[in-house]
Amino acid sequence: MEIKNKKVLVTGGLGSLGSGVVEALSKRGAEVVIFDRVKSDSPNVYKVDVTNEKEIVKAINELDRIDILINCAGEIYSEPVLNIMKREHHSFDSWNRVINNNLNSCFLMSTYVAQKMVETRTKGVIINFSSVSAEGNMGQAAYSAAKAGVESFTNVLAKELGMFKIRACAIAPGFIETPSTKRALSESMIDYWKKKTPLRKFGKMEDIISAIEFIIENDYLSGTVLHIDGGLTL
Predict the structure, then answer these.
(1) Known active-site residue 192
(2) Secondary structure class of 121 (helix, strand, coil)
């Protein structure tokens, strides 16, 4: 699929990851629409909570078509299953919030956009964001579970929607140099993970963008998880 002149819907498009995706695809000639919780005066930004079914349906119905969906919205979160020192266990409220923001949002957006694609006979592409944490990262029980769910859900989308010529893939980044990564990790943890990564460095937004472009432009790619992690999961 050519990127130029395609209508691309990016969730979380005002965030540190999503804004980079929006900028890159706009430069390639795509017509980009953003769903984000943050209000904006820009005509291409819809104030939508992507965990709210009614808000999603209302906004999608205002669009004539969607060629590409990129689910960037989510929340990085760390909390151990057990905290022996504090005699606490993982909060059920935070578990539900993280699952809702990372997995349920992906389910809602993907299913409603897929329905729109089928109704408009669009040979579309759905790209979901997973993480290296999908394999189970200590201290990130809820986040890991959500991202593992995203990968399995993406595989189901690829299998079920292929008959409609709709492709689905996921990208599982390692540690990428973004403001959200710096907020989530201390300097000592940043140094630790750089040493654990075979390439001894964090990735850049350009690495994520090239993966997105590859998925969009390769019409025979579906049901794949691209690990952009510098070899961290080897």
Answers:
(1) no
(2) coil
